[in-house]
Write a structure and sequence with these properties.
The complex is a heterodimer. By secondary structure, chain A is of the alpha/beta class. In chain A, helix 5 crosses helix 6. In chain A, strand 2, helix 2 and strand 3 form a beta-alpha-beta unit. Chain A is built from six helices and twelve strands. In chain A, strands 1, 2, 3, 4, 5, 9, 10, 11 and 12 form a nine-stranded mixed beta sheet that branches. In chain A, strands 6-8-7 form a three-stranded antiparallel beta sheet. Chain B is of the alpha/beta class. In chain B, strand 3 and strand 4 form a beta hairpin. Chain B starts with 7 loop residues before the first strand and ends with a strand. The chains are: A alpha/beta, B alpha/beta. The interface between A and B is large, with 49 and 41 residues.
Chain lengths: ~220, ~220
């Protein structure tokens, strides 16, 4: 069921300890900073977080990691010039890392939302990231079996929602939003604008409202 | 003075920009291309409008334009290196799974990547030094290496210590197996594949001098 809530704190209130939380964004583009801050405030811990990166600087996901609320990161690119909070936790052995090639990360998320039980992909074949995984030769190429990544909650950012939860995004801020919305049991979206139902051209809807559970407008 | 072989096309090694210009010139008109972070990004400075090249960025865009400046800077419009960029007429946006389907599905003609090492059979190592204290980060490197029809590598031929980065087999962790088709270096352009390594041209070095630096058997292109 779709609900419109007034505050980001209400939007994340149901997130429990031990949850798997997908967080949209690639770098800062599409990152739902206000929802992440609310997740910080709500106190949930022992989280598994799925994001392309592992936090930057002293904001958002980086702070959640600094405060020890994340027990495991599933991501493709944790190491950045300003990922010092992740770096420190990782080197201290206080956070688990599942490193996934970026396209496998995206497709595993997509597979979860699409009800696919896994897929074979040439990406990673013959590398250390395929160690221990089932492989097959398909169409003459070595391929690796990858499984879906499901989540309890997705926190994403879109540009606009209408009254039934249809979403449109803006430029490269779309990134992981649509696939995370489909992969999570409960999807929370922060938007810049809510328009009346009928206010989005159905031909241009990117995420249909069926994938959306909770919407909050963030100024 | 020097005994130039027929494949020596420059009397000096190429600089980074000269190499980028050469790669740009070798990209066929109408190609769809992904340029990796770092040195490969320089290639975009030398693509000519009449080549009609479409640039792909892994974070969900085709038709990427040059880096944004001044009022053009928009936090929602960035490239894989998280640098603000611009959009060209005809650009399109798509989500991450579609963006990597474009790679994995073999729709990109060329990707240009940096490398630590390339093996004689085109194995690529470019994501991890394997050092025990290093935090591994792979990003889209493995997807690009296995997905694009042609994988071009740009790198210096030698490490700071003077070791060849073209090797019999990679000692760094692999990014992809048998995926590299060409290697552009400051001293030579190499074509790699199942039949071994062919030298297309050399810069400031003869074929024989090059062979003395590289520990795999080289063939000169006919």
């Amino acid at each position: 069921m779709l609900t419109f809530v007034d505050t980001v704190n209400e939007a994340v209130a149901g997130i429990k300890d031990g949850s798997t939380v997908m967080i949209g964004g690639f770098g800062n583009a599409g990152q739902p900073f206000e929802l992440i801050d609310a997740l910080m405030d709500c106190g949930a811990k022992d989280l598994t977080v799925v994001n392309n990166n592992a936090g930057q600087g002293d904001q958002g996901l980086a702070l959640l990691i600094k405060e020890g609320r994340v027990k495991k990161m599933i991501c493709s690119f944790p190491r950045q010039s300003d990922s010092w909070h992740f770096d420190a936790k990782y080197k201290a052995g206080e956070i688990e890392l599942e490193l996934v090639p970026q396209g496998n990360l995206a497709e595993r998320i997509r597979a979860a939302g699409a009800g696919i039980g896994g897929f074979f992909t040439p990406t990673g074949y013959g590398t250390m990231l395929a160690e221990g995984k089932e492989t097959r030769t398909i169409d003459g190429r070595g391929q690796v079996f990858e499984t879906p990544i499901h989540a309890d909650v997705a926190l994403i950012k879109a540009l606009k929602a209408d009254g039934v939860g249809n979403l449109v995004y803006r430029k490269t801020a779309r990134n992981f939003g649509p696939i995370m919305a489909a992969a999570a049991k409960h999807t929370v979206v922060q938007v810049s604008e809510i328009v009346p139902t009928g206010g989005l051209d159905p031909e241009n809807v990117v995420t249909p409202g069926i994938y959306v559970n909770s919407i909050v407008k963030v100024a | 003075m020097s005994t130039q072989t027929s494949i020596q096309t420059s009397d000096k090694p190429l600089g980074r920009d000269e190499l980028a210009e050469l790669v740009a010139r070798d990209i066929a008109p109408g190609s769809f291309v992904n340029l990796g972070i770092g040195q490969p990004t320089l290639v975009s400075n030398y693509l000519k409008p009449e080549q009609n090249i479409t640039l792909h960025t892994e974070n969900g865009m085709l038709g990427m334009g040059p880096a944004a400046t001044g009022d053009q800077i928009d936090g929602d419009l960035i490239n894989a290196g998280k640098i603000p960029v611009t959009e060209l007429p005809g650009a399109s946006y798509f989500h991450h799974a579609d963006s990597f389907a474009i790679m994995r599905g073999g729709h990109l003609d060329i990707c240009v990547l940096g490398a630590f090492q390339v093996s004689a059979t085109g194995d690529l190592a470019n994501w991890h030094t394997g050092a025990p204290d290093a935090i591994p980060a792979v990003g889209g490197a493995m997807d690009l290496a296995t997905g694009a029809k042609d994988v071009f590598v740009m790198m210096t031929l030698l490490t700071r210590e003077g070791a060849s980065k073209i090797v019999e087999s990679c000692t760094y962790p692999l990014t992809g197996v048998g995926c590299v088709t060409r290697v552009y270096t400051d001293k030579a352009v190499f074509l790699t594949g199942p039949d071994g390594v062919t030298v297309r041209e050399t810069f400031g070095i003869t074929f024989e001098e090059l062979q003395a630096l590289v520990p795999v058997p080289l063939k000169a292109s006919a």
